[in-house]
Design goal:
By secondary structure, the protein is an alpha/beta fold. The chain is 35% helix and 24% strand. α1 packs across α9, α4 (75-84) packs parallel to α5 (99-111) and α6 (126-136) packs across α8.
């Protein structure tokens, strides 16, 4: 597959370029609003073309798909342009600034017969695949609750617009809560119905929230407690899932390298759960390529991206209003 990078981003450099090439792909072009950045990024990563004009980039018959990793406010217009140009789309989360735009993107791709996927990487990790298998196989019994803790210290090279630019989609809710929403949906196989939440600025955010806690009601009646932050230097990440027959305790599994420990606890005692430590980004790209070839579906499709955004928007609204808020999935 021949790819174009819409955004000369850190995540593309650190993870996605390697994942594309690991699947036999080539990278035709990269787009940046800064001409010098486009040129230097293309040279550094052996990319043939560096562009500053999206239309020119998309006017390439040898381009099959685009990976969008710009600031959140740009995703909608860039995805719609790519779809209009007949390109398949792999888009970073959150898909858009609001659910209505996300639904429009996904429906436009479907109408055009194109594959549209959301780059929710965690559901591709061996640790999370093992956790999901335990839940879905019934080892925990009926699920009672889930606790997800994703409070980290955002490193300086990732701060920038995430901590001071609400117009670009900054804040911990659009950045991390969407990840947790997708993880919860992936493991439990259901959507949250309503949420309550509180957010705050705890030392890093400037005009945006940098910490949030929320409680979600699932359709089954299970409860979810979630904690996301940019400011916790020494907090470990993880997931706990508790059922009528057992519990999962997973630590160190909510990072870009989620290869911590997963433990299953039942009446028989505690056991360490083995899992594969493959490249989760390469797996996601491989499934995307298979979907384009008509073999299966992406790891996280457009509906998954809509749902994670809808949960994040409900958390933000509940934190602002102080009231329980229903999750609006935009009719999708």
């Amino acid at each position: 597959m021949r790819w174009g990078l819409v955004g000369a981003s850190n995540i593309a450099a650190a993870h996605m370029i390697g994942a594309f090439r690991a699947n036999g792909g080539t990278i035709r072009s990269v787009l940046s609003g800064d001409p010098d950045r486009a040129k230097s990024y293309a040279a550094e990563h052996q990319i043939e073309f560096g562009h500053t004009d999206l239309d020119k980039m998309l006017d390439d018959d040898d381009l099959d798909a685009v990976y969008i990793s710009t600031t959140n406010d740009k995703h909608f217009a860039q995805a719609m342009a790519a779809i209009a140009a007949g390109k398949h789309v792999l888009c970073e989360k959150p898909l858009a600034m609001d659910v209505t735009d996300a639904v429009t993107m996904v429906r436009a791709a479907a109408d055009a017969g194109l594959v549209f996927a959301t780059n929710h990487h965690l559901r591709n990790a061996g640790s999370h695949l093992a956790i999901r298998d335990l839940v879905q196989s019934g080892r925990l019994g009926d699920i009672l609750s889930l606790r997800i803790f994703h409070a980290v210290h955002l490193p300086p090279h990732l701060q920038g617009w995430r901590i001071d630019n609400p117009a670009a989609g900054g804040g911990v809710i659009p950045d991390i809560t969407v990840h947790d929403a997708d993880t919860v949906r992936f493991h439990l196989g259901e959507d949250p119905v309503s949420v309550v939440a509180m957010s705050t600025g705890s030392g890093m955010g400037q005009g945006v929230e940098d910490s949030v806690m929320s409680v979600w009601e699932m359709r089954s009646g299970a409860q979810v407690m979630a904690h996301e932050s940019f400011t916790h230097r020494h907090a470990a990440t993880g997931v706990e899932i508790h059922g009528t027959k057992g519990s999962i305790h997973a630590r160190g599994v909510m990072t870009q390298n989620p290869v911590g420990e997963v433990t299953l606890v039942t009446e028989a005692g505690a056991e360490t759960v083995p899992f594969d430590q493959h490249d989760l980004y390469a797996r996601a790209v491989g499934l995307f390529i298979d979907a384009v070839a008509g073999k299966g579906a992406p790891a996280a499709d457009g509906r998954d991206g809509i749902a994670s955004l809808a949960v994040a928007k409900a958390v933000a609204a509940a934190a602002e209003s102080g009231r329980r808020t229903d999750v609006d999935y935009g009719g999708f």
